[in-house]
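[Meeting: bench + compute handoff]

Bench side (C.D.) handed over the final construct sequence. Compute side (W.E.) agreed to return the predicted structure before the next meeting so the bench team could plan truncations. Sequence as handed over:
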Amino acid sequence: GFDSHHSFMVQYKPNEDLGLDMHTDDSDVTFNVCLGREFEGAGLTFCGMRGEPNHRHFLTRYQHVVGRVVVHSGDRRHGADDIVEGERNNLIIWNRNLEWRRSQEYLNHRADYQAESSRPDERCLSYTHDRDYGHFKQVPLGAQPGKGWCPPPGKQYPGYGQRGSVVRNSAGFGEAELGKPGSQDEL
């Protein structure tokens, strides 16, 4: 069972918060309850599990329905697609089991980050968390790129960062060659 939770509300509207970048949750299991309003877009894109070879590979897209709950692992990479019209309000509940989190099995699970099997699916990229985001896409206008931790060093997909690959810098401008010594964008 769960012995701890953290609950909060999210609201998406055009010209305000449109969506949410790809991420994982600080939960063992997440409940995402669609409370309403009329809206178009703002679905959820689901990708692989944190630490698995397919972490950044597309799994499915879910379209919210008012009054329904989506239940998923906190380790599942996901993001809220941009809203097109209307307003979507959701109650998010992060559930935790503190006994599980103190167990050796949990600690081993968190430490066992496997190498990526192949290049990421562009639908599963995160400008906040992915070191190679700029290789595939420009950072969205107005978004603040993160420092990036994914994939962890030594866990990259085959061909990651080969010489001659073109990337955009963290502001989305200019180009640099991956692997070029002294490059700002060297991965």
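W.E. noted at the follow-up: Residues 163-187 have pLDDT under 50 and may be disordered. C.D. will use this when planning the next construct.
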